[in-house]
Amino acid sequence: MVSKVATTIRSTRLDDTTLDEIEDALIISDLGPSAAARIRDKLAEKRFGSVITERELKEAVADEIAAILRPVAKPLDITAFPRPQVILVIGVNGSGKTTTIAKLGHWLMEDDYEVMLAAGDTFRAAAIGQLKIWAERIGAPIMTGPEGGDPSAIVFDAVKRATEIGTDALIVDTAGRLQNKRELMDELAKIRKVLGRLNPEAPHDVLLVLDATNGQNALSQIEIFKEVAGVTGLIMTKLDGTARGGVLVAAAEQYGLPIHAIGVGETLDDLRPFDPDLVARVIA
Ligand code: GDP
Question: Where is the signal peptide (predicted)?
Answer without folding.
Answer: none
